[in-house]
Amino acid sequence: MIEVRGLEKRFVQGRGRQARTVQAVAGVDFSAADGRITGLLGPNGAGKTTTLRILAGLIEADAGSAAVDGIDVATRPREAQARLGVLGDARGLYPRLTARENIVYYGRLHGLDAGRANARAEALAAMLEMTPLLERRTDGFSQGERMKTALARALVHDPANIVLDEPTNGLDVLATRALRETLRRLRDQTGKCIVFSTHVMQEVERLCDRVVVIAHGRVVADGSVDELRERAGTPDFEEAFVRLAFADEGART
Ligand SMILES: Nc1ncnc2c1ncn2[C@@H]1O[C@H](COP(=O)(O)OP(=O)(O)OP(=O)(O)O)[C@@H](O)[C@H]1O
Question: Per the database record, which ranges form the ABC transporter domain (predicted)?
């Protein structure tokens, strides 16, 4: 279970009189339940990545709070991280290490012994259909191979909650389908709480039980795909998104 309340974050770029403030997140609230896939949907620059980075404990919020299974990420970061698997946008694999070493290394950081970390790497590789990649250095991996390795690494400690930042970025149709299948399996078979950010409508329609629409750093709508369509008064989800996300700017096409 993930809960975000009144989250705010601004960035200051430059110094002195040249300094410019960007309000990246301006009061985001949402909850993501166990056994559900929740999508953060928003246009470029809406504040999705910043929200997820705060949740992952990578940056601090200026105001508000984020909690994983009721544990505040700012005040009890290690406990919160133990319950959270994070697939970041940069993937960040160590190129000189093999896929197995990348996964096991993270397992060890999360306190698993070597035997357990290796067993988890093998089980996850089987689930993600990447066993033949395990002993290869990640240097030179394709986008899909990187994503699988990074996802296995994020899941190595079997967290109850998973956060993914634009997980299908750069993936082809088959890899995207495989990822969708994996996320559904994690939801249905193990009841994980899954949150992912995207700006791909199709992905949200096919995968999400709940959608949180973010625009200009704020939540502008929250509900199932059907509820959002109904609320926007259109059967076309893309049109519904545009109406909800850009309501204050007049509808665009
Ligand atoms: N480290 C930073 N320094 C300065 N500005 C930042 C920083 N990180 C994010 N921003 C700004 O905050 C705003 C929100 O960015 P964020 O990456 O959270 O959006 P997003 O919804 O994930 O967008 P996208 O879909 O394009 O990835 C943007 O205007 C961005 O330029």
Answer: 2-241
Residues 6+ apart with CB under 8 A from 17: none
Chain segment 215-236, per-residue pLDDT in tens: 999 999 999 999 999 999 999 9
For residues 125 and 230, state if they share a domain: no
Measured from CB, residues less than 6 Å from any atom of ligand 1 are 11, 13, 22, 24, 42, 44-50, 199
Q: Which of 18, 44, 50 to mutate to test ligand 1, by most ligand atoms within 8 A of the CB atom? A: 50
Residue nearest to atom 2 of ligand 1 (CA): 11
pLDDT for res 253: 43
Residue 21 forms beta bridges with which residues?
A: 12
> 21 in a domain, yes or no?
yes
Give the H or E element holding residue 22: strand 20-32
> Domain span at residue 111?
101-158
